[in-house]
Design goal:
alpha/beta; eight-stranded mixed β-sheet; Rossmann fold; 11 strands; about 375 residues; three-stranded antiparallel β-sheet
Length: about 375
């Protein structure tokens, strides 16, 4: 990380009105994003600023012309995480890509988003979230915000690969609802430990699903929320599961970017009731399952799974790429020594798997990409 030549900018994006709700009861929420660009000529001081959490705003820093044909990666995190937890993976992707001039040309830029009630977005939207009659931001609302971003000038002419972890995987698949298939800018999807399943599968496993959901809610609501300082918080999480399994860089990002200073001490940016409300939000993941079935023969879908099936049963995982369900996968990668929180546990191995997808996508000719249209 210390020698990565990456430039980063922070953007605050206006989100759409929550579908099916009045603007008065559900005021539109902001979505916070960071854009990452590889720049071998950037100074080490800029990199040091970035690593210490300093970032700017604006629309400058355009990529050079030879990068404009490359791929743009959009990263969506899972429940309880935030955009910066992707940073070790993103930096590793850039570093791996920079080892070859051919590989580097495959990557244009990367973006990571905060779910509207997580991370920096949780702080920015706190008043608006509190005015809502009930806590929570559905994956549908997050997906619509990401779709609006894909339609914005930021993404004009970009070939996009959305990458979602856990609940973020369902959200990125739902972005296809806002595009006709023949005109969608998404040229492939990478789903990391997706929590996508059909409604029938959910009900067939209802006891197991409800047990895991209720456990996640209980642990969230019981969790400690205040620490004297960041170093104390880092040490505390390092001693407690799941922090004991996380890569130090991801845990540091969690403490540095997922927590805020208050007069009483350091606290989590995401409110406990907001996080807890995300676990029962299953309808969007059912629909994401249908979208996978509808598009997987047209838009390549790549899966990254932890070898240890800690969250979804193996048969449910397998069904997402099973021809018997009308589905296929372009590739399937298994990450050794990790569980469901594979992004937090093995960011470099996740990056390697992503780079394999970039290589595969770069080999697709323009005609092959246009064939789906």
């Amino acid at each position: 990380m210390s020698n990565a030549n990456v430039e980063v900018k922070t953007f605050v994006l206006d989100g759409p009105v929550a579908q099916g709700h009045s603007e008065a009861a559900f005021p539109p929420l902001k979505m916070v994003a960071k854009r990452y660009r590889w720049n071998p000529s950037s100074s080490q001081s800029k990199v040091a600023d970035y690593l210490s959490g300093v970032s700017g705003r604006g629309t400058d820093n355009l990529p050079s012309d030879d990068h404009k044909s490359g791929l743009t990666l959009l990263f969506a995190h899972g429940v309880g995480a935030h955009k910066e937890q992707w940073e070790p993976t993103i930096l590793s992707v850039f570093q791996r890509s920079s080892l070859s001039s051919v590989a580097k040309a495959r990557l244009r830029e990367a973006w990571a988003f905060d779910w509207q009630n997580h991370g920096d977005a949780a702080v920015l939207n706190r008043d608006a979230l509190q005015r809502r009659p009930s806590p929570g931001v559905s994956v549908y609302e997050w997906a619509r915000a990401m779709s609006a971003f894909m339609k914005s000038d930021h993404m004009k002419g970009h070939k996009i690969i959305p990458i979602g972890h856990s609940g973020g995987a369902g959200a990125v698949m739902l972005t296809l609802k806002d595009f006709p298939l023949w005109a969608s800018p998404q040229v492939a999807f990478i789903l990391v430990e997706p929590t996508i399943m059909s409604e029938a599968q959910w009900h067939a496993l209802i006891d197991d699903r409800m047990e895991k959901m209720q456990f996640s809610i209980r642990m969230t609501m019981k969790r400690r929320t205040l620490w004297p300082n960041r170093e104390d918080a880092f040490a505390w999480f390092r001693r407690k599961y799941p922090g004991t399994t996380w890569d130090d860089r991801v845990l540091r990002a969690f403490v540095d970017h997922g927590m805020e200073e208050t007069p009483e001490g350091i606290r989590l940016k995401c409110e406990k009731d907001q996080e807890a409300s995300s676990y029962p939000d299953v309808e969007g993941h059912f629909e994401a399952s249908k979208i996978v079935t509808a598009v997987c023969h047209t838009i390549p879908i790549h899966y990254i799974w932890a070898k240890d099936p800690t969250y979804l049963p193996l048969d449910v995982r397998a069904s997402l790429s099973d021809a018997a369900y009308g589905r296929t996968a372009r590739s399937i990668k298994l990450i050794e020594g990790a569980g469901h929180m594979v992004v937090q546990e093995k960011p470099d191995l996740v990056a390697k798997a992503i780079c394999d997808v970039l290589a595969d996508t770069a080999m697709m000719t323009t005609d092959q990409m246009q064939a789906r249209l």
